[in-house]
User: Fold these one by one.
Assistant:
Number 1:
Amino acid sequence: MYVTLKKTVPVSAWYMLASALGFALMAACVKIANTTYSIPVLEIVAARAIVSAVISYADVRRKNISVWGNNKPLLMARGTVGALALIFVYYAITTLPLAEATILQYLHPVFTAILALVFLKEIIQRSTISCIVLSLLGLFIMIQPNLLNDNSTPYSWLSIGAAILGAFGSAVAYVIVKQLTKTEDSSVIVFYFPIIAIPISITLLGSDFVVPSLAATGVLVLVGIFTQVGQIGLTKALHSADANKATAYAYVQVLFSVLIGWAYFSEVPVLTTLMGGACILAGALINVFWKR
């Protein structure tokens, strides 16, 4: 049965599933660091980048390759766009329920498919189109109650806008990563994110630095570790399939976030969240099992 499933599901899907779980756990740790230990968002970004830099550098040296890569301008662009997108995403995570923040951020596969079509000349396959349509329907159902223009909605447009900007920035970064996989090792691509994100986040943080407790430090380290799992899985997935095809599998992170939000943060999903999640899961399954 395992062999049959392995043959049915593409390698890129397994990488993306591991990436989705890593990013879901990362988001939970970000929320804990900010809401429980009052660590500023920019400090969390810096801490994540430092941990990622250490792990990435060790991985590059293990492979005995140059840490600076070949296409330095494009590598630096990937790091800059990724750092800015991460700031927006982390702000959304800390100001919105985990499930809603993840859902809004997961507009990025739609942006990725469009950008990959325009800049990489990739053809959007029918299975990916079906996945995107169902997923957008699910996203609309899930976020619609939070976007109503009345006094009952507890979420600000600033938080929602930050999540959408983070999604667009992530899509731009993913398309750049796809282009870079033609000339660069995946470890080098991952390494460039933290070395750009560290100076940006520290500069913007300024005097708002908070000395973390031992427990908070442990949570910040976990943010970096789970991020590395997500980044490596994502980079390898993009290396295994078209950008728009591989990122479509990442929708399952929404389900991981719903479960974590319910189990740890007592964020009980409403009916629209469950309905939208069902649409997103259906889209992901169609994308995976279309050929079968």
Number 2:
Amino acid sequence: MSEKEEVARSVEVSVAFHGERCIHSRNCVIDRPDVFVPNVKGEWNHPDRATADEVLEIAHNCPSGAIQCSRSDGSALEQAPVVNTVRVRENGPLAFRGELTVAGEAKGMRATLCRCGLSQRKPYCDSSHVAAGFEATGEPATEPSEALATRNGPLNVAPQRNGPLHVTGNVEIISGTGRTVDRVTDAYLCRCGHSSHKPFCDGTHAKIGFQAP
């Protein structure tokens, strides 16, 4: 997927907004409506109204990774998390946090990926689950797992053609309430919306003829 970005800069920070990844969680416009001004024509992104640390906090609260920030000289402002996670959203997408590569491209530290099978912007969520009334628990059963020797590092998500998300790297799968569901280094996560073992793939995509790049 080719992504467009809008970039706004202040003396301290550069903010890139990727509209095609936005799931309209509205954290940005609720937390700092002076920086991200809702429902206006023209310029709406004003990083000059906040410090670099405040802008970074806004970025951290954006689950989809639509908001990315760096220092004005291009150097890194946001650092990789100490623990890589995939949070299972109730009736919604999979929210990844880590040093992400998605479909072979570096994608920053955050992304929300479709698990209902209906997004028009796969592998990313576009909120189609809401209109479709998708139902899938955010509190899947806890799987037996050992503590990972390393909890961070690169996290690769490779969407399989007409199949699941193949996730490799150290990652903890977390329920919506913060409970650890599983700890894995290699897993296949459902994105057709029909697995009976969500968030994991159980091969149902092949039976129903799921199609996705």
Number 3:
Amino acid sequence: MSTRVAIVEDEPELAALVADYARAAGYEPALFDDGAQALAAFQDAQPDLVVLDLMLPGLDGLSVCRALRAFSQVPVIMVTARVEEIDRLLGLEAGADDYLCKPFSPRELMARIKAILRRSGHAAAVLAVDSAAHRITVHGKPLDLTPSEYGILAALARRPGQVFSRAQLLDLAREGNASLDVTDRAIDSHIKNVRRKLEAVLPGVEAIHSIYGLGYRFDL
């Protein structure tokens, strides 16, 4: 089942942009431009996360958040053009889990959504390694990888959260394929290419992290 992200935003262009990024990140977006309408919909079927604008026509974001907290603990990220500290505090006191000021980067919003969903147990397994077919898919679609890139990404993805040195990563990438044409010095270049290909299908999502002085870690 797809992770459902409700976007409550009365600026149509911004709402559509956020929805596009959410869809590309593997989420199922639902758009609302009215607070009361959104709240009624949440009572019927709760989403997995809510991106909630503070300044909405009619029922504002703070009121929606307070009312939502009366029957749900669904994570809420509140967004607003009002940057004063009192507004931020009011949003958090109303039950928001995070707070983002406009204008914001959609990529940053996706990163925050991912982090909150992971903490709340809703993170989706979007990447799969098929060893038999020597293929890696994202949301069911195969990535166009060279044999070296496949070996490196597969090694990382099979052990999420673990940090590997370049030498360790090279050994793992060569498991089952001793003829793999990759050297310790070339790991960085292959990682760069893999990141670029992942970014094309998962915009705003950083899957491979550089750990200074140690190596790389996969975390999606």
Number 4:
Amino acid sequence: MYDDIRKIDLKNGATTADMLHKNGYRIFGWDVEWRLNSITGNAIVSQEATLSHIRNFMNNKSSMVPNNVVFLMHDDMFQTKKGQQQLSSLIDALKSDGYQFELMQDYPIKY
């Protein structure tokens, strides 16, 4: 929920989302979530699958806002060297495809 856009996927959160929005908060969901085991750094969803999901959203313009993908990563996933390396590798792969990273405060970017 932001500006005049409202999309609620889980009905049990609608009341809370409406209240927060009414009080000036911008509420964001995500298009792609990447999960790693926070202890081992092993991927629960592979990097290749995550890259594929992001590329599909961008190529098909099927994310909530075309040309913008909200990518959720949990900070506890990157406490191990292996997790940090996987994050760096994912970011490098996306940047080599020409994708850019922006802050949520600037969402959505008009491309």
